[in-house]
Amino acid sequence: MNTSVGETAGELRPLSWSRTVAREMVHRTSLAEVLLTDVRRTGDGSFEAAASWPRSHPTFPRDGADLHSPLIVVETLRQLGIYLPLRYFGVPATAHLLITDLFFALTPAAEPRAASAATDVTCLTGVSEIRTGADGAVTGLRLEVTFLAGGTAFARAGGGARFLDARRYTVLRGAVTTVRRTSRTAVRVRPEATGPAVADPRDIVIGLDGGTLLVEPVDPKHPFFFDHATDHVPGMVLLEAARQAAALESHGTLLRPTAGRLRAVRFTEFSPPARVLCVPHHGTCVFRVFQGGEQKAFGTLQYR
């Protein structure tokens, strides 16, 4: 285990992987979905965190023979992007935390193998571009994380987030309901689970309407994607929809991305289902999400 400087001057103690952080600090309802186990400040704008990646995750099965899913990197980034603002930057628990953009990149040759137990991951995190409002409250920042296992760096990820109080969020969202969809819509044609490379048919988040791919999760109460209430389609769902679309459009040749980017320019609503347009080219897939004639999100996925 790595030794780090504690938050008390002169204190030295190892990071701990023995128990998770409080679930409300990462906006999770289920303890099983909490990956962070310890977080501490190591300097001005720098932090060190411990994350425990389970050998088997119902949504993120091991890829290939013994690799963790690349999307678990993104989920760890998401949890850090919530925990750090709440714990260290005075963002209130009532605030709405929104992802503006994200990226991830893996070094396949250095990735840890999933053994018989969970993988202990160290997350070296830098915080920058801290923005504040007229009252001095933090309204946004950027994170960049280097992931290590056994002292070896194997991935990077980062992105931007903004924080809105209830009043500003209500103004931004207008008349949109704050109750997420919890019932199925009209049944679409669904790809077989082997097509988008998911562990279970309930993990499929796209539907087929003729030749159009739609962002439409099979399970609106999915234990990972919809673990807590939301009034818009989460960014993780959009990224997974793009991954599944790439798998289908490439006829199964692009399954496991080793790098990717996502930028959310507008909220993606639950209804009507958004369209995901994916164009594979060699080892890259460019994707765009459209809804009501507007581009809601876009990005790329890269494969080796």
Q: Roughly how many Å is the radius of gyration?
A: 19 Å
Question: Which overall shape is indicated by the principal axes computed on the Cα atoms?
Answer: globular
Helix content: 10-25%
Give the termini distance in whole angstroms: 31 Å
CATH topology of the largest domain: Thiol Ester Dehydrase, Chain A
User: How much of the sequence is in beta strands?
Assistant: 35-45%
Q: What is the level 1 CATH name of the largest domain?
A: Alpha Beta
- Work out the number of β strands: 14
Q: Helical element count?
A: 3
Outline the biggest β-sheet: 12 strands, antiparallel
At the fourth CATH level, what is the homologous superfamily of the largest domain?
A: Hotdog Thioesterase
| CATH architecture classification of the largest domain | Roll
The helix/strand class is: mainly beta
Which runs of at least 5 residues are low in confidence (pLDDT < 50)?
1-6
Strand order of the largest sheet: 3-4-6-7-8-5-11-14-13-12-10-9
Would you write up a description of this structure?
13% of the residues lie in helices and 37% in strands. The protein is mainly beta and 304 residues long. The protein folds into 2 domains: 3-172, Hotdog Thioesterase (Thiol Ester Dehydrase, Chain A); 176-302, Thiol Ester Dehydrase, Chain A (Roll), CATH 3.10.129. A 12-stranded antiparallel β-sheet has the order 3-4-6-7-8-5-11-14-13-12-10-9. It has a two-stranded antiparallel ribbon with strand order 1-2. A hairpin with a 2-residue loop joins β3 (36-43) and β4 (46-53). The two termini are 31 Å apart. This is A-factor biosynthesis protein. One of its GO terms (molecular function) is transferase activity. Residues 25-157, 218-253 form the A-factor biosynthesis hotdog domain.
